[in-house]
Design brief:
alpha+beta; 2 domains; ten-stranded mixed β-sheet; 14 helices; about 55% helix
Length: about 400
């Protein structure tokens, strides 16, 4: 350790409580900054992953709010609108449409289990194509009296493969032939039925909340969408990228607010560093004057003070990253409770590049905050300081 660096460390240790509190402020600011950037990155990656997992290129839905469509695609939300019965046949006739499948999302009371189940009606023969990342224990239902349970539904009800699942309100009993392995998404909360069975249970023959469409050549998607909109008025077509933009816009305000809070916290931490170092300079005026009297240059004094701010910001920043990493699960659980939508999977994870960037940014801010105290210390007149 060089002489000046050792002297800087000793100066900080002489006022341990003040140095600790200053580093704590920097640690809190850097921890929040790291968590915000890490969460934003995890959010975008998780959203893209969930949209990719749909296996579809776009959705045909009744005309309505784009946010409702995003909720339907990502949450499986219940939308109180239905497409006309003939739309599915017309969509399938369009050249370039490889797959078009009706989807019916509805709620069905289950008095036996004191809950309301979310029903997801879909053509079981295309389930592998529209949910390519799913892992299923057992078999996909093939008969009208069979169903597939989401992970959470099966866990909460304590159901296993082969168990009976009854809906007394419609006097129907089903056999559990498959259970979805945990996806950490809204998919875990559904009861999956064949579309025909779901329509019959909901007393809505041919009803569909949406039509999922996959095209044979993605580069032709624009022309296919234009053709659908020209030939079928009264429908709305939303691509997966539009769904992503819609959700991203909803989350943007929360992201901006949290980032602003992190930056304000960092500025407050920098002011704390400036205040702490400036107080130390005033208290050590005689000492600095003696250093100048025995040969230390202004540049030597400037370097010593600036190294003190560097140590404070680096140690505080590293502590902030460590705290944010250790408490990532708690932070993520809290954010999931207050945000309307968060993709499945881990949103917060340690990224060395991001961690170094946050500490580096804090270091720059800390150095800027330390310039004035260092300049002030370097301007101390040795004779006046020793006399005082």
């Amino acid at each position: 350790m060089s002489g000046m660096l050792k002297l800087s460390v000793q100066n900080l240790l002489r006022h341990r409580t003040r140095s600790f509190l200053t580093m704590l402020g920097i640690a809190a600011a850097v921890g929040v900054l790291f968590s915000v950037f890490s969460f934003n990155r995890g959010f975008d990656q998780g959203l893209a992953r969930e949209l990719q997992a749909t296996g579809l290129h776009f959705m045909v839905v009744p005309v309505g709010c784009a946010h409702e469509v995003a909720a339907l695609v990502l949450h499986g939300a219940v939308v109180p609108k239905y497409l006309d019965a003939g739309v599915i046949d017309d969509v399938r006739k369009i050249d370039g449409v490889e797959l078009a499948t009706p989807i019916l999302v509805a709620q069905l009371p289950n008095p036996d289990r004191h809950r309301i189940d979310l029903i997801y009606g879909v053509e079981m023969e295309v389930l592998r194509e529209i949910k390519p990342d799913w892992r299923i224990s057992g078999e996909i239902p093939t008969a009208p009296n069979e169903l597939l349970l989401g992970y959470d539904v099966a866990e909460h009800a304590g159901l296993r493969l082969g168990d009976e699942f009854r809906y007394p309100a419609v006097d129907e009993t089903f056999i559990v032939t498959g259970i979805l392995e945990r996806t950490n998404s809204q998919d875990d909360a559904f009861v999956y039925l064949d579309i025909g069975t779901a329509q019959r249970l909901m007393d809505n023959p041919d009803g569909a909340t949406a039509i999922g469409v996959k095209v044979s050549a993605p580069e032709r998607m624009g022309s296919i969408i234009n053709q659908l909109e020209e030939e079928m008025p009264g429908i709305q077509i939303v691509t997966m990228s539009q769904v992503m933009n819609s959700v991203a816009n909803v989350a943007a305000s929360a992201k901006s607010l949290s980032l602003a809070i992190a930056l304000v916290a960092l500025v407050i931490g920098a002011v704390g560093v400036m205040n702490s170092i400036l107080m130390a300079v005033f208290e050590r005026s005689q000492e600095i004057g003696m250093m100048r009297a025995i040969g230390a240059s202004r540049w030597n004094v400037f370097q010593i003070i600036l190294k003190e701010t560097t140590i404070l910001t680096i140690v505080g920043g590293a502590a902030g990253i460590a705290i944010a990493t250790v408490g990532a699960q708690l932070i993520e659980n809290y954010v999931r409770r207050i945000m309307p939508y968060v993709p499945g999977g881990d949103m917060l994870s340690f990224d060395p590049t991001l961690a170094l960037a946050c500490v580096g940014f804090a270091l720059v801010v800390g150095l800027v905050a330390g310039l004035y105290p260092a300049w002030k210390a370097s301007r101390i007149n040795p004779i006046e300081a020793i006399k005082s």
